[in-house]
Design brief:
- The protein has helices spanning 18-22, 56-62, 96-103, 144-147, 205-211, 259-262; strands at residues 2-6, 8-16, 31-37, 46-47, 54-55, 78-84, 90-92, 111-118, 123-128, 148-152, 158-161, 167-169, 173-179, 186-189, 224-228, 231-238, 242-250, 253-256, 265-276, 279-281, 286-289, 296-310.
- The chain is mainly beta.
- The strands form 4 sheets. Strands 1, 4, 5, 15, 16, 17, 18, 19, 20, 21 and 22 form an 11-stranded antiparallel beta sheet that branches. Strands 2-3-6-13-8-11 form a 6-stranded antiparallel beta sheet. Strands 10-9-12 form a 3-stranded antiparallel beta sheet.
- The longest helix is centred in the N-terminal third of the chain and has 8 residues, at 96-103.
- The chain starts with a strand and ends with a strand.
Length: 312
Amino acid sequence: MILKLRPHYVQKIWGGEKIAKIFNFKSNDKIGEAWVVSGIKDNQAKIINQKEEITLDLFYKQNKKLFNNYKTEDFPLLIKFLDAKDDLSIQVHPNNKQAQELENYPYGKSEAWYILGLEKNHEIIIGLKSENLNELKKVNKDNWKKIINIKKIKVGSVFDIKPGTVHAIRKGTFVYEIQQPSDITYRIYDFDRLEQNGKKRQLDLEKSIKVINNDFKENLSFKSEINFLNLKILQLISNKIFNLQKWSIYGNTKIRLNEDERNFLIVTAIEGKGKINNFAIENYQTLILTYDEIKEITLEGNFKLLVANPIS
């Protein structure tokens, strides 16, 4: 079975207009995020090609066999597009244990980014220059660049953002993000922005310092590249939470997978359009291929996919 979804859209102080244009709707709000695959309560993506429209989490819980009886009670991944018209806050996320202790929530936030578009800075904020975490309590507009790292990026850059890594997306960046099903964020610095009520957004310095793990190491080389007939697969990330690949399709082809290792696939078109198992996919559209669909996959067209699955 192939599942077609309607995203959940999230207004953000730093959001822009790109997401509304991509998904063809009108909005006077700053839309910062499209949660294209989400089973999080009150922020659900909805499956729209079943007999009745249904939230992803409910469908997942009612049809576990279609996901190879995957081990988690909740849908295990959250996938977003982020349109940063302005800088995001400098922030950090907890791991599972810390999320349970600090927030009584089962999941921390391990995430990864694939850079889809750049307009301005061509850089992100990631990691710390200083080992003295108490310096974060004094971060301000004059000194934050002396304390926190800035890295140059390009379209196609990939980052594995483990819990505890200080980070922020900068303005003019369009991002595909894959992560655990959690939205726990601790803000370290927010560039002194004011909300509509005239107050600065809340910072979470004490919790941030508790969860920071300043050992970020950039993955400078991709793990592997596999070439099939009309198909190139680039391994981007494989960690304890998820696997992420880039598939480039140059015509009609078939690929056989070990479905028990993958359980199911989440595929997102990032360039062009085509067909997957005779099911049409458009640029920036995301589909879920359930367990019964992934043993042999037929691909038709000229397009590129980001292909994700949870780790068994």
